[in-house]
Design goal:
The protein is mainly alpha-helical. The protein is 71% helix and 0% strand. The chain has one domain.
Length: 147
């Protein structure tokens, strides 16, 4: 058991120092870690970690990191979440207005919570995110109409 805890700490430390540290915002980290999860199996896949650590340690560690980031997002005040989300979405390839529209229409954000997150936290997250997308979209519309 102690070996497992130490191994998982090594995976978490490696993942946070080499991967997550390069992502400047919480939503970006959440999007990234959710993208590592295979939606059909629920397993996380990370080619860099698999070369160094056993699969079970990677699964446990990335799931733990996913939960931590998700919790941090939920604990962040909405005004700060709006700034963080704006920064995240502006870093995506499409213009912000297009990304906002796609996120609102496709609800691609529904894959962001950890698979084992309780339903009430998932619903809180979705509700907050829908509101934030509306706010950011309204800000974009104001900027577009005044330009």
């Amino acid at each position: 058991m102690d070996d497992q805890i130490l191994r998982n700490k090594s995976v978490v430390r490696d993942f946070t120092a080499t991967t997550l540290a390069a992502i400047p915002n919480l939503y970006g980290r959440l999007v990234y870690i959710a993208s590592l999860r295979d939606l059909s199996t629920g397993n996380y896949e990370h080619s860099g970690l698999v070369a160094l650590y056993p699969p079970q340690a990677i699964q446990e560690s990335l799931e733990c990191c996913h939960h931590e980031i998700f919790q941090k997002v939920l604990e962040t005040p909405l005004a700060m979440q709006a700034e963080d989300l704006r920064e995240c979405l502006q870093g995506m390839p499409a213009p912000l207005a297009v990304t906002l529209s796609n996120w609102r229409q496709l609800e691609s954000y529904r894959i962001l919570p950890p698979g084992t997150a309780p339903d009430y936290l998932r619903e809180l997250f979705f509700s907050n995110l829908r509101a934030l997308l509306e706010i950011l979209d309204a800000e974009c519309s104001t900027v577009r109409s005044s330009a």
